[in-house]
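Please check this today:
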Amino acid sequence: MIDVIVLGGGIVGASAALVLAQKGQRVALVERDFCGSQSSGVNYGGVRRQGRPLHQLPLSQRAHQLWADLPGLIGIEGEYVRSGHLKLARSPGDFSALQAYADQTRGFGLGLQLLDRSELRKRFPWVGDVALGASLCPDDGHANPRLVSPAFARAAQRHGAAVYEQAEVIRIEHDSRLFQVHCANGLHLQAPWLLNCAGAWAGKVAAQLGEPVPIISAHPAMLVTEPLPGVMTVSTGVEGGGIYARQVARGN
């Protein structure tokens, strides 16, 4: 008997399966490909609180505490480093927005540091002339998503969750008591609870249960360089969006 079926083996589904298994629930984690192989495994890898909406910060702070012991949570370090997160201001208006955000988040413990042009040049000379100031969140950082995302699924499995990969869901039904999940490989699972963590396919899953969710699948423009000499010491973005950049230990 299964208590919960989790659809989607990305970091959301796998972490949910892990916590449920830790709480003693009998969990089945179902992934259409391999766990962590889709968006959760090929993204930018930022682990940050700075810039998030105010209503997200309590949860972000809780997550920040959990990431402090990533090996204890999933068994690997995952190349997680608290390098700091630098947000650049390219105009006086941008810098005013960073100042306002620092004021609004003062009670959340982010430890934001506002840097004017001279302090920014002194501490991060590689930034160049693109910015007239910045906000630094010193304990934010980044990790390797290709390592971390599948590690959550393996940790869930070690705690007793059943993990089914290459199990594309083709039909979901509910008989007023149990969810019935049918997969293309012949797998059939049933449970009283179903978590829809299918990412880009979550809208299709929801539609099968009469609750369509408007989801648009988009592909981010991201590039990775060859290894280069060390330059960037922090994960870096810009106020107002547009670009993020970081450099890993290998130099990419």
About this structure: The mean pLDDT is 94. The chain has two domains: 4-45+145-208, 80-141+225-245. Residues 30 and 164 are 5 Å apart (CA to CA).
